[in-house]
Design a protein that fits this description.
By secondary structure, this protein is an alpha+beta fold. It is 35% helix and 19% strand.
Amino acid sequence: MTSRVGCSKKIVMKVVRGTVKKQNERALSKDERKQVEDFYQREDVSRVCAGVMQTITRRGVKQPKHLLSDSVRNLFRRYVSEDGYRPISYSSTVHYAETFCKLRPFWVVPPVETDRETCLCYIHENVRHLVSALKNNNILETIDLKVLVAPFMCSDNSIECAYGECDKCKTPAFSFSRLVTDDTISFWRWETGTKTYTQNEQQKQVKITVKAMKKTAESEAIALFLSEMTVFKKHGTLCGNSLLHSGRTKLV
């Protein structure tokens, strides 16, 4: 049978089982595939691991390791909600279907426990470190983010409150535990910068996020806290309040 129709046995079996791919079925163009890959590498979607040695190699191709800032499913929801992107499936049991999951670059991976020392969410981590320092210096009474953000929002589910459009809380009043002195405060902070390295005798640059110790006056730390909380309440609301509600368990 195979010699008469000019097909291999493998193809004949696929025809019988009805699994032969139709011409261009579900296929994305090169630009559309690149659009998905570029999305995965956006700074708000994944972050480059600190350290030039943190790379992933596959089939002779080495790339800096990126950690996803959220689950792939949540990132897929964000992808399809943004304008300019062609509709695409999340995943498929059909092995040839080009889906959001299958188009993820191999060097962009979900974080695991061993990646904990690498910044996974710099907004949350920076607030956490700053709040801990202020609490240790008796400027704040608590490190519970849900309690701390409450004076800045009437409701933690309100978009208007999160973006300062609510008349009741757009000019919040926050009380600290004591008066400011001339003392200094030290705290860790994630910062994004550029690192230069040599690969194949060529100078290259990559954006990295590193953890640095900061030392500042109490007045500047308090001003930073007030500014960070304004950003953090937006961040927590957009993430479905998961960061706000996780403050108690992560900061104890």
